[in-house]
Amino acid sequence: MQVRDLAAGCPIGLIACGFSPPEALAALAEHLRWPGLFLADEQRQIYGLLGMRRARLWRVYSPGTLARYAVAAARGHHLPRPVEDTRQMGGDALLHDGIVVRRWLPRTPDDRVHPAHLLHAAGALQVTTTDLD
Amino acid sequence: MSFVVHQFMDAADVAPAWEKATDPRVRAAQERLASCHYAVAHLESGELLPACVQHCVLDPVDSVQLRKLLLSSTPVPREIDRPVSLAGLVLPDACTGRAVDLGALPGTHVLTAVRHQY
Fold first, then answer.
1. Can you tell me the ipTM of this complex?
2. Percent of chain A having pLDDT more than 70?
3. Which of A11, A95, B23, B63 qualifies as a FRET site for B85, CA 20 to 30 Å off?
């Protein structure tokens, strides 16, 4: 289940961002049928501001991953070299009126907050701020 | 020699199936419980029961504790609620090329930062 599906019909805006070139991100947005903004952050300004750090080398290239690559190479498969920073981790945040009020930073490349938890927190924030207004 | 093939079933289906509900949705679960070979003796009663029944019907509290124990070793993202202003941060929307001033966005948004594409 993706954030996009869970947020359908909710009055909560969705923003994605990546550090790939804008053309690549536009293709990804089209592939995902992303309903909101898809920001190109090539200088990783959001990543830096929110503390989304790079994973440790062994977390990305674990013995299991290296073994898989070695087997693939031995079988004659072409292994493309990465052209982007494979260690940069992503993350998720709640933004209200231009201020990030809550964020979830992964400890490894794989542990992201569950989309349902994210949308629940966004809904609660919206209710709270609406009450205050 | 016997081979045991595991096929997990939805926990929500086990209790009504064990209680012989007539709902057609849980009939498959009833049939699988009836033919289950993964039966073990219950620790308190000694009765030979399918493991699914022990987990879902007879020992639900133990199952909750077990789930917590197993999940405790899974890394979870660090949650931080210290505010960060995005005032002055302007980035282009990859789809339209339009410059977006993040600090001036009104309302609530979920922001998801992705990893590398290549």
1. 0.87
2. 95
3. A11
